Automatic annotation (TrEMBL):
<dbReference type="InterPro" id="IPR036388">
    <property type="entry name" value="WH-like_DNA-bd_sf"/>
</dbReference>
<dbReference type="InterPro" id="IPR036390">
    <property type="entry name" value="WH_DNA-bd_sf"/>
</dbReference>
<protein>
    <submittedName>
        <fullName>MarR family transcriptional regulator</fullName>
    </submittedName>
</protein>
<dbReference type="InterPro" id="IPR011006">
    <property type="entry name" value="CheY-like_superfamily"/>
</dbReference>
Length: 326
């Protein structure tokens, strides 16, 4: 049964119905996007292919922009980058669907707009993404929503909200109100010096990340559970992402977003949500490719790398440990 969401028309503060721009080269996908947007209460401002829009024949940008890009050639990537910039400045919301093969190129085009990126999405995933965009519209009212669809939307909302809460308020941390990092209480080794602090430590050795093969062996052991149990039973994308990036940092390897989605062990769209939340909470950083500014890599922030090194040291997995002691 397909999700059937129906909303009252959505309006801005001036009472004007919000508009959507739909850009897709695949006819069937473009038609489905239009149907879903209209059902959500948007009026269609533009509905055409990427090349047609880029040609300048159409130039309007709706409050919501739905894009389907499966062949990110130079022209398409240039258009996506412009859309990212325009949406980032205007506050328009972007929902972009693509394929796993095109993910790295598409991901690299979006850094300003906070676009939702969906990988090989089904109809329900697109509907849910539009529903998330509607959460930013004030005074939104649901007109008709079947109980099954209501539960599906509720589960998704709880999942996304829970994800953000776990990352932002997992434990008391560095930032006011808590954060994703947990730090030990300061000891007598700390002393004030004006507005600065210096540390006197009996042990000046700073924990370092274990060697790459050691972390890879740990990852392999985690993955081995799927041979005997349902992999969903142990789904832990945040930790799998951190482990993969820790190993890559030790190996001095850059990590593309496609590789990281695979390492997360969950559907790519779900992995992208985790990556986005982890970047927002400073666990991860987005690094533009110096050789191709349209692409980007993901890495551990320095604080995260330090916390992971301390964790590995705590469990006896130091930088000089051998794989056999795991």
């Amino acid at each position: 049964m397909q999700a059937d969401f129906a909303y009252e028309p959505v309006h801005d503060g001036a009472g004007i119905q919000l508009a959507v721009t739909i850009l897709a080269d695949r006819d069937a996908v473009r038609a489905q996007m239009r149907e879903d947007a209209e059902a959500a209460g948007y009026r269609v401002l533009e509905c055409c292919g990427l090349d047609e829009y880029a040609s300048g024949a159409s130039g309007g940008l709706g409050d919501l922009v739905l894009v389907d890009c499966v062949e990110p050639d130079a022209g398409a990537m240039a258009l996506l980058s412009r859309l990212d910039m325009r949406a980032g400045k205007s506050g328009a919301q972007l929902i972009v669907s693509t394929t796993m093969d095109a993910l790295d190129a598409v991901f690299g085009c979006f850094s300003m707009s906070g676009a939702q990126i969906l990988v090989d999405p089904g109809h329900a995933e697109r509907v849910i993404a539009i529903g998330r965009s509607l959460a930013h519209v004030p005074n939104l009212r649901l007109r008709e929503l079947a109980e099954e669809d209501r539960l599906m939307l509720l589960r998704l909302t709880e999942q996304v909200a829970g994800m953000a809460e776990r990352l932002e308020k997992l434990s008391p941390g560095q930032r006011e109100g808590g954060g994703a990092f947990r730090l030990e209480a300061s000891s007598s080794a700390w002393r004030g010096a004006g507005d600065e602090y210096v540390v006197r430590s009996e042990n000046t050795a700073v924990p370092r990340l274990p060697e790459g093969p050691v972390i890879r062996a740990l990852i392999a052991r985690r993955q081995a559970r799927a041979k005997f149990f349902d992999a969903d039973l142990f789904a832990d994308p945040a930790w799998d992402i951190l482990l993969d990036l820790a190993a890559s940092r030790s190996e001095r390897q850059q990590v593309c977003v496609t590789s990281l989605c695979i390492a997360a062990g969950v559907p790519a769209t779900t992995a992208l949500r985790w990556i986005s939340q982890m970047v927002d909470t400073d666990l991860l950083v987005r690094i533009p490719d110096p050789h191709d500014r349209r692409r980007a890599h993901i890495a551990l922030s320095d604080n995260t790398a330090d916390m992971l090194a301390r964790y590995f040291s705590e469990i006896g997995l130091g930088a000089k440990e051998q794989v056999l002691v795991l």
